[in-house]
Structures are given as C-alpha cells and as structure tokens.
Design a protein that fits this description.
The protein has about 230 residues and is α/β, with parallel strands linked by helices. Helices cover about 40% and strands about 20% of the residues.
Length: about 230
C-alpha cells in the first residue's frame, strides 16, 4: 500500500485518519504543522500527501507550493465546509483533488486509490511518442516535453493532457473529464477541471497569445487543438 504523509493540525482528525489508513495497510507518517510536514517529505518519501489547508504557521497553500517546487507527488487537500476561495487557491497551487472534512476513512481511501490509479491506467491512443506542435507526448513513459525539455506535470495534469490529446478536436464536457481524470462519477465540482486546465496551460502554452493546445468550448468544456 502507498506511503501517505498526513499534514493536519487537528489531533483528533490526525489520529483518526492515520489510524484508519494504517488499518488498511498504509504506511502513514503524520505532522501537525506545515514546517514539520515539509521536513518529513525529505525523509519519508511519501507516495501521496493529505494536506490540511488551515495550518498554523505555513498554511496548506504555501506547503503545496513548496512541495510542487521539487516534487510531483499527488496531493489531496483536506478542507472545511465553506472554504470555497481556499479550495480554488489550493487547486491553483498544484493540488490534485480535495476532500471536505469531516470524511469517513473509506471515503478518503477511495479518493486515494482514484488519484493513484490515474497514472497506472492507459490514457488511450497509440503507444509511443506523439508530436503535437512543440509538444512530445510519451504515452508509455507518461512524460511530456516541450522543445525537448521535460515538463514537471502533476498526475492530474498528465492524465488530463493524455486524455485530451488522444482525441484531437473532440470536445469533452467538464463532467466527462471529472469522471475520467478524477474518477468522480457523481456531479462533482467543476473547479477541479478548470484549475487543472489553468495549471496545464501555464506549463504547455506560450506565455503570449491565445491557448494553442487546450481550447475552451464556452458553456461546455475543453478540446485539444487545432494546432
């Protein structure tokens, strides 16, 4: 089972979630502050991070940004109800998903499996390296390069790009992308999709001009191309 780093300042939540995940076979290391969590990143080498947004000292958004400077490990935010603005900021900072507290351990476990499953499943299309303009998409290696330079994409960003580029010109609704990329079969929050698209555009698109690779279809969703 994957190693999970839990960064949560509420002792009851930290102990409850940690105990529940350990009972399911996870190796869990827990921290009560952002500073302690960042220190554990270097020694524990987690395969997924559960990150509370409201932390003393360095808050969850700042921790997320710090992690993304050196690692593309999947990050799931833990948020309180009504933290809509913080959710958007956290997603923009590089988080892959979020869970509203309080949440049962089985819900957290299901979301962990969904996030980790994204890079283990094929994204469709032919194997090998595909070239889309300046982008080289390696479906087998799950990497993307622009002008020969590999891009540091988070798991959700890779899965989204692979899915869109496998069917150029096809329009996907936000709900379709939620179901495929995030494995959310219910009517989930479309902000997951929009935030991921913004992060991905920032990495693959040219800084000036209209989006070249991922285009918005107003009132519906997104499509890949034309180039």
């Amino acid at each position: 089972m994957p190693r999970v780093l839990l960064i949560e300042d509420d002792p009851s939540i930290r102990e409850g979630v940690g105990l529940g995940l350990r009972r399911r076979g996870h190796d869990v290391s827990a921290a009560e502050t952002g500073e302690a969590g960042l220190e554990l990143m270097a020694s524990f080498h987690p395969e997924l991070v559960l990150l509370d947004l409201m932390l003393p000292g360095i808050n969850g958004v700042q921790v997320c940004r710090r992690i993304r400077e050196n690692s593309q490990v999947p990050i799931i935010m833990l948020t309180a109800r009504g933290d809509d603005f913080d959710i958007v900021v956290g997603l923009e900072a590089g988080a892959d998903d979020y869970i509203v507290k309080p949440a049962r351990t089985e819900v957290i476990e299901a979301r962990i499996k969904a996030v980790l499953r994204r890079l283990s499943e094929p994204a469709g299309g032919r194997p090998g390296v595909e070239f889309h303009g300046e982008l080289a998409v390696d479906r087998a290696g799950l990497t993307v390069a622009k002008k020969g330079e590999r891009l540091p994409l988070a798991p959700s960003e890779i899965k989204l790009l692979l899915h869109l580029s496998a069917s150029p010109e096809q329009v996907f609704s936000r709900q379709q992308l939620l179901e495929y990329v995030w494995d959310h079969s219910y009517h989930a929050d479309a902000r997951l999709v929009d935030a991921c698209v913004r992060r991905l555009r920032h990495k693959i698109e040219d800084p000036d001009g209209a989006p070249r690779y991922i285009q918005t279809v107003r009132g519906f969703g997104y499509r890949f191309g034309p180039l």
